[in-house]
Structure prediction request, 487 residues.
Amino acid sequence: MTENTLTQPNVIVVVADTLRTAFLGCYGNDWISTPSIDRFAQQSVRFTRAHPECLPTIPTRRTLHSGRRAFPFNDYRPVPWDNVYLPGWQPMNAEESTIAETLQQAGYHTGFVADVPHYFVPGMNFTRGFRQWEFVRGQAEDRWHAVADADPALLDRYRAGAPDRIAAHLVNVRPHRPEEDWPTARTFQRAIDFLRDNHPPGRNQDASPFYLYVDSFTPHETWEAPLHYYDLYGSRAQREPICLTAAYGPFADQYDDRIPSIRANYAGLVTMVDTWFGRLLNTVDQLGLRDNTLVFFFSDHGTNFGDNPDKIMGKPADYMYPGTMDIPLLMRHPAGLGAGQVRDELVYTLDVPATILDAARQSSAGPVEGRSLLPLLEDAGGFNRREYLTCRYGNSVWYRDDRNWFFDSVDWQSPPPGASSSGRRQPVTRLFDLKSDPDCRVNIAGRSPERVALARERILADAGGRLNYYERHDSTDALGRPEFSSR
Prediction:
């Protein structure tokens, strides 16, 4: 720590689910309007090689709320009454401390606002440590309003996706309503209310430091933006039928006529997040909190729109291309340290909770496995650059270092009996040379066995020597959970 670092600064964390790096102006996009995020980037340090520690939504949140690696998912136990069953998709461990608990015990007032429905499935246990928390209802996957109430006359406006998913979108999001009524806007407004309620004008000097964690499900599917945002990027004549979702996998050809509409709706949702994030930042300034508040803005992962060698749509676990794995990560220091800097260190989502505890000068009751990013801003030394990163998503794993980008199925360790490399259920091993092929277009795994072996060796080392492969069966247990076997 340097003399420029405040003791116990306020902390704001903003996560935007499925926000792809390539769709932000500060990361080089020249056709999507993100003025608030771009301005924030000028005030922040911007990381260009930031990646998730694990995937997808819930495993990543376990990392962010605990400060510990969720990888390698070797203890997977599904929870009842969920709608996603994947390795690592499980509750916060009741026996491990959380970042919010540690900060609350250190005198912080803790707040949590999210419209991510998966957080609030019974038993997920993510609200621990928060003195105030709010589940903002209304995202399409939220079990909220009655799908039977959806107007049948509106269903023809949509194509693809399960009918119940479309109906849930209509009754939950209510896309005909004003922007302020959408879940995204209400999520950020509740965060703004948290700041105003806890820091009324003239009383900030007496207030406790706060930790505010804001998690926006947008721009995750479902992909329909308010019309005034869609109009920035797409034609009304091409808008319908709207694809709220797209099947994950190498299916871009099936959406050829719809990709312009999908991208325009996605871009509109990105600009919507930008608008409301800007309002949150404006509130920080209006309340005089900027000079003592550490602010993060980042995503859990991205998505794909057919712009890769396999023409992948969405974010399937088997295809961990940069569209999925590159994430934005911006951090604004209370004293303005590092403003405008661009850093190329290999960093994880795992490093955010480590940085928060370092800034608050607190030690967790359990191990914190990330690396604080503060030394990079404060020129204090002490940041040990990583040689590589690893990640797991479902039954697939990913690795990158300065030269190699690699992903594969975990069943390379013990292929199914009688399965050959050509008959595997997962795609072939992928390896790309980042020096000559930074966009990961040409698979060189077949002619670089030594580099494949290095990636696998390091993945296994991080996993403690073993990665369980989970096979889902058609049967369920007495609680209705799908049954899995592992090997």
